[in-house]
Structure formats: C-alpha cells, structure tokens
Amino acid sequence: MTATVRRAAYRTFMFIVALALVVVIWETYKALGPADGGKLFGARILPRTSSYAMPHVWDMFSRFNRPEVRGSDRTVFSVVLAGAWFSFRLSAAGFVLGGVLGTGLAVLMARFRWVQRGVLPYLVVSQTVPLIALAPLVVSWGGKLEVGPFVWPRWLSASVLGAFLAFFPIAVGTLRGLAAASASSVELMQSYAASWTKTLFKLRFPTAVPYMVPAFRLGASASVIGVVVAEISTGLKGGIGRLIIEYAREATGDPAKVYTAIFGAAALGLTMAGVVIVVDALVMRNRPKESIS
Amino acid sequence: MTAVSVRKVSKAFNVGKSNQVDALHEVSLDVKPGEFVSLIGPSGCGKSTLLRLVANLLEPTAGEVMVNGKSAVKARLDQDYGMAFQQAGLFDWRTVRKNIELPLELKGWDKGNRQTRAAEMLQLVQLPEFADHYPWQLSGGMQQRIAIARALAAHPPLLLMDEPFGALDEMTREYMQGELLRICAATGTTVVFVTHSIPEAVYLSNRVVVMSPRPGRITKIVDVSLGGERTEDTRNRTAFFEAITTVREGLRGMHAAHVGLGNDDR
Q: Which among B14, B41, B21 is positioned nearest to B214, based on CA atoms?
C-alpha cells in the first residue's frame, strides 16, 4: 500500500513539475523571443511576444477573478466553472452512451465472427469522418426526430457526438480483451459445459478488464473532445466550447480571457480522466501488479 | 463398466485439404475405475488429442468414446470429469477459494455448500491457510495444487491431466507426484495423465500407454506393478528402474525418424 501511495505522490509531483516547465518555457520565450516573432521564407513560424499574442501566465490566472464583462457581478471563474460543469454532464452522458455502445458492439463482434468482419472496417472508417462535418448533420437529424412525447433536446446532439468519438476505442479495446482469454481457460469452461454467456461473464469479461481500463480512459477524454467540438460547431450555448469561441473573439481587447476557457476545458478533460482512474484503481486492486501495457 | 472406453477412434485435422493431419489412427483403450493411466510419447503422437477426445473438447473423426458408460458429450455436460492443464490456469481475479468454487458455481450449487466443499478441498491439498490469497501470490506448485483442488471440487469420478507438472522444477515436481497419488488414493479418482517424462509416468501409473506419431497410435502398453504403496523409496527400487527401461524401449522401438521431429502435440 505504501508503495502505491509513494507512486501516486511521485506522479503528482512530476505532473506539477511538467506544468511548471510549460510556464517557464512560455515566460522565457516571452521575455527573450523576438518581438515580431520568427519568420522563415515569409511564413511566421514563431509567435509574437507581445501581450496580445502571449499574455503573462499570471495575467491569465488573475483574469479568473475579474468580472466576465465590465459591470457584471459574475467573475470569469464562476462562468467558466458553470460552463465546464455543463459540458461535463454532456460528456458524461456521451461517455456512458459510447461505453454501452462500444461494449455491446465488442460483445457482438466477439460472439459472431461475421459481425466482426462486417462491422470492424466501418468502425475504422467512421473515425475518419471529420466531426465538424458530422455535427450539423446530427443536429438536423435530431431535430427531425420526434417519438411520441420525446423531443430531441439540442444538448443531446453534442452528447451523441461525444459518444461517437468515445465508442471506438472502447469497442476496439474491449474486443481485444474479450479475445485475450487463454486457450486452456476457454477449454476449462468448455469442460464445465459452461454456456457462451456464462463464459462471457465468468471468464471473458474479467480477462478483458485490464484491456478495457485504458480503452475507457481514452473514451472518456474522447467524449470531452467530441462534446466541446460539437458545442463549437453547432453553437450550443452554456458549455465550455461556446465560451472558447466567445472569448476568442474578444482576444484583441482581452487576450488573457480565452485562456481561462481553455484551462476550463483542460480541467474538464482531467476530471473525466480522473474519474476513470479512480474506477480503474478499484477494479484492478486485486490483480497482479505487473500489468499489460 | 469402464471409466473410459475408446473404440477405434481416429482424429484428423483439416480433413480433405492438402494439409490434412492424421493425429490419431484407430486407437482403442480401456481405463478401469480407480486406475491411473499415463499417455507418453514424442511430440505429435496425439496424446493431448486423445485426452481432448475423452474430454469431448474435440470430436473424433471416426470411432466412439465413452466415459462412465455414457457418450463423451453426455459425460462433459454432466461434468463427469475434472481437468488440469500445464498452466494452472487459475483466474487471477478470484481468490483461491473462489477459484475452487468455480465448477460448483457453474453447477448451480448454493453459497453455503460451495464454501463447505471449497474448505474440504483446501484441506485435501493441504493449503487451507491460502483460501483468501490470490493465485498470483502463490508459487507454481501451490497454484497447481489449487488447480487440482478445482478439478476435483465437484467430486468427478475421472481426472484428466495434460502435463500438469511440466512447468515445475524437478524438486517440486516429485513432491507434486506424491501429493497427486495421495489425493487420488483418498478420493478414489480415475486418472488419465499426459506427460513427457518417463519416470513421472512410471512412478504414478498402473499402466503406461506408449504412443508414436504419424499417424498417432498406441504402440505398447506397459503394466507397472511396483507392489504396495508408492513412496519416495519406490524411486530407488529395481522394479521402478525396470519399468522405466521397458517404457524407454517402447519409445525407442519407433522408427528413429519419428522421434523428436514432431512440431505439435495436438
């Protein structure tokens, strides 16, 4: 247990060191870099160091404490927090949807070879479709969908797009895990005359857990990206994606402001990954320590 | 009634294709209840295939396999046998106790009965203090003992073992052989045991079945009578060495080209 604690402390420490390093590089370049940026054959490859292009890190953070707009009594912090919370709920919905879809697909693919052969190539192709192109389509399909009293809420489109990005790593990772049971353990279950379903729950899923954990972690951050991009491209109000474009428009007058929204998005992604890491630690606590990579 | 009856069984893989392999050709063998029979032979002689046909993990191409007077399928569905492999194959995510309970769970036993039986089995393999450990916390020999406990948990009349001690070091291996004999004597279990090791086969068995490859067939059956209980002393007796020599001659009797050139046990 102490080893686990020490490792966690070490990781936290390294995380802070890495963050501090980014700040140091940022500020060093700002102090020492060419004021007009660097140009190569007429193309700008290094940014300008002015406060408009590169605000000080402390300016970014102090911006959190000031009002969002002049005269407002809401600070940027509370607005960004509310936006992140909104997007978090959408991402969580997308993650759950993608998780159910991805796991379900993986089970079907593991059960029926023809499903795997037929579906897997389309899954790979699906991930090459640009999300920005897909977002308006999903919104318009959703708008046309009305089943009885159910009316497609606008936010659901963003969650669906989050799920669209999340399900793929989950489906692929889970499929690999379900196929990872050793030949002799499959024979063992056969020798007990265990049905396919029993084998699935008593052998294949437990074997798959070490494969599913990193897959779900990828899926969690993918759902956040999906939701934020969907918010931006469909103009959905209330989330962190919308704040990023709104604040980016104000960048000429208030350059530090957009970074608050970006930090909010980063914190959102980290929170999502953190939730999965906690679940990971819980389900893997009784497993051998040398894990698969 | 015989515990295992194999009648003119053949098994071919990739039938009708250019890479057809005749793993077994018209093999017949009877195993009496309570008997310990070893299958020995070079790689590719079909000894593992024969074991899997008895376990109904494979279907014969021709011939008939009966276990406990039933068809092999029926015997598997009734869980009339337990099985142990070279890799102990314990489930990492289950405690030792839960691993032993697995076959009982699949038979639909209730929790109380499962726990009682698991405790009995742990006593039998002399590892009761490890009930709540996880398999990966145990040594290879201990893991294999738990695998035997799991295979025998439902008290099947027949135990099928595929090189169960193949991955263990020599010291542990000899200890495990003694343990297996003790356990089988205590439970009256019939055993069919696949091995590469001549001394292991002779020490454990009432009969050693010598097999040869291409196509897999039985070339010789050696009766081993070492008289009385087998102990560590048995390994020093003349009769033990004589039986080893007989088995070795059986194996050498094969055409030299057959030995050591096989690439697969199945």
A: B21
